[in-house]
Specification:
The complex is a heterodimer of chains A (about 280) and B (about 280).
Chain A: H1 2-52, H2 62-75, H3 77-109, H4 111-127, H5 133-140, H6 144-168, H7 172-180, H8 185-223, H9 228-237, H10 241-274, H11 277-280
Helix pairs in contact in A: 2-10, 3-4, 3-6, 3-8, 3-9, 4-6, 5-6, 6-8, 8-9, 8-10, 9-10
Chain B: H1 2-25, H2 27-32, H3 35-47, H4 59-72, H5 74-106, H6 108-123, H7 130-137, H8 141-166, H9 169-177, H10 182-220, H11 225-235, H12 238-271, H13 274-280
Helix pairs in contact in B: 4-12, 5-6, 5-8, 5-10, 5-11, 6-8, 7-8, 8-10, 9-10, 10-11, 10-12, 11-12
The chains are: A mainly alpha (about 280), B mainly alpha (about 280).
Amino acid sequence: MTLAHARTDAGARRRTSSGARRGPRSRLVSAFWFTLPFVLLLAVWAVAVEVTGTPMRIFPQVTDVAAALREMTVSGDLARHLGASLRRVAVGAAIAVVTALPFGIALGASPKLAAFFAPLLRFSVALAGIAWIPIATLWLGYTDSAVIFIVWNAMFFALAYNAMLGVQRIPIELLRAARSMGTGRVRMFWEVLLPGALPSVVTGLRIGLGYGWRGLVAAEIIASSAGLGYALFLAQKSFDTDVVIAAMAIIGVLWLLMDRLILAPLERRTVERWGMKTVAT
Amino acid sequence: MTTTGARPGHAKINPMRRLRRWLGDNAVVRTLGPFVPLLLFWWLLAESNAFPDAFFVGPDTVLGEFGDLIRKGILPGYLSDSITRLLYGVGFGLLIGLPLGFLVASSFWARRLTWPLLLFFQAIADIAWLPIVIVWFGFSLTAVTFVIVYTIVFPLILAVVAGVEQVPTELVRAARSLGAGRFRVFVEVIVPGALPSVASGIRTGLGYGWRALIAAEIIVGTSGVGFMMFDARRVGDVSEVFLGMIVLGVLWYAVDALVLAPFERVTVERWGMVRQVEAGR
């Protein structure tokens, strides 16, 4: 995953940097090449449904999906579901960052703690997220907090594990230099450990958010009364496939936006600022 | 004489120290050791009755449940159902993902026209496909397999493309100038060069596929470990939910540690792209 993302990120960087260098024109060109495949896909979709005469219940026409989208927007359903999902992801992710980072960094800073917790963490990463849905709904009921718990849970272990790895990869000379100059624990955390671990932390954030996003959709399908996953499942029950496809498209677009607007810039900034430039070049 | 005289003194200190060193060096102890205090803690927590029995049970109860379900043949049956599904999914996923990946990677136009789509379809969380897949295939094995295949194919394609891009152009040029044909370059330069990235792609893809399997079993719900857990949750049988989680965790941990991680390590070591892997992490 990290490699795949490294590639996509490199692609994004190349595009933006060339866009910056050669002005708005080439940015337009790259935007064109980004959207063209989608236009082609929509065309193929429209023609295929038209030619084969697939009934709407099996696969809706493009226009049906667009109509469904418009209807959802007008009726306010879209805003409601979107708001619910985004709020849950935000709250879950925030709690995960606040809890996992100090834990992971503490583990990374102490070899003994790390040796003890590393196998437990790996085990928990394997289990994180969706497998917790039954027990979360048992403990917290079919509520908002159950869904938030799932998002938190899906992210926590990946984040903590990667924060630990990040700290362990900080060159020992840096730690010694800071220590020999009399750096206190608090300053050590804020000025050496945290920044040094950041590139790895961002990787963990990306993996964790990927798990969390999937966990969110699954948890909403199973255990809630609002949110995109719920909308999806409700529409499926009444065979409104146009709404199903619309909700799927929204889920995809949302993740792409999150990736492009939050994760990629964060990754670029941390890797450029603290990252492994010497290794990468 | 002196040696035998010195022995008893050594023997008094040595066994403990040797035992400790052996414990510290032994891989099995190092991996499984941390689980012992965790189990103890769990048991104590359950014994202290801090939580009601309906929400939280101890390891002894779960163990009893385990023996019970094994005797009745329920757990082996469900487990083999889950694993069969995963194997089908992985098999088809590899069959589709690998060729497609190399196809996309080998042609500039294929990449230009499909890359945005790949990103988008990767972004639609696999679980979001479940509702529409249920409409298409009903509550069947095909539906579950489809979701797993979908989950595995996209990370795999992205990883293959990233891997092929990492193959240094000098190597390809060198092989060509030595008279290797396109096919030979592909088989002997590009495929081995891309392998490390492909291996990590398979690992991530499987990680997602595993989660998708659990979610699909919960939602489609005919058999399997995921179904067992959710069914148990419905009737309020906590011990079975706990048991399901542990089984899932152990199973994935075993697959990851015994199959996937060594495979990745071997390819990385064999094809020696250590430099890039370090950068990618």
